[in-house]
Amino acid sequence: MINSGVIADTCIWIEFFKTDSPLANKLEALIKNQSLYMVGIVLAELLQGVRIEKQKATILESLSILPYLEMNKANWIKTGILSAQLRQKGITLPLSDLSIAVIALDNNCQVFTVCCPNND
For a pLDDT cut of 90, what percent of the chain falls above it? Predict the structure, then answer.
């Protein structure tokens, strides 16, 4: 377990790679302070959106400097249990978001994300 840190959600990384925004600037500060961690699901989500090879290389190079936190079997079990508990309360969240939450909780990290209003 790490002492503290931040895991940035995919939406924050997308902002980082495409704009000079307040979110991108905050992420840059976290990188410079060495308090940012990468997780597999965020890496995979970023790479699935790549349209040209140069983008893939930029993403992989940029993220290679970050420490990496991995899911293990216990984390997956916690993710499934958390999902079931939330569903019993009428709340359904993507497993990707729940896995990030479990990794963050197990490693004393915060999650850097933005809330989007429901477009229903």
Answer: 75
Task: Give strand pairing partners of 112.
Answer: 8
Architecture label for domain 5-112: 3-Layer(aba) Sandwich (3.40)
CA distance 19 to 16: 6
Reference 26, options 115, 110, 112; nearest CA is 112
SS3 assignment, position 6 = strand
pLDDT in tens, 64-94: 999 999 999 999 999 999 999 999 999 999 9
- Residues 111, 100: contact at Cβ < 8 Å? yes
Q: Please, are residues 106 and 75 in contact by the beta-carbon 8 Å criterion?
A: yes
For residue 74, what are the contacts with CB-CB under 8 A and spacing of at least 6? none
Q: What is the pLDDT of residue 119?
A: 41
Per-residue pLDDT of 42-60, as tens digits, reads 999 999 989 889 999 999 9
Roughly how many angstroms between the first and final C-alpha of the chain, as a whole number?
39
pTM: 0.87
